[in-house]
Amino acid sequence: MSRPDFQVEIRELNLAYLMLAQQMLRSDRATALYRLGIGEKFADLICDLSAAKLVKLASNQMLMPCFRFDDADLARLMSGEGRDAASASLHAAIIAAGRAAEEAA
Length: 105
Description:
This protein is mainly α.
């Protein structure tokens, strides 16, 4: 039984992520840094990449985007589980922002 090689899918996902990140950073840097969960140096690198370098970086075998948390309860809140989907999403955003602030300190 052969195992699937996800190289093409990883490259496509990486490229989509990097292009979106570049667009977000150029549009609203502060919000992009928070939403992407990246630091200033990596943001500068992404912004300065040419299209060719973006494609080359995306072709790496490692997945570029990563989950910023490993918390099933927070993921459930973000997906709208709970009493009220709107308040669950707001609650998740507050928790995630608090964790980001803790990590930065």
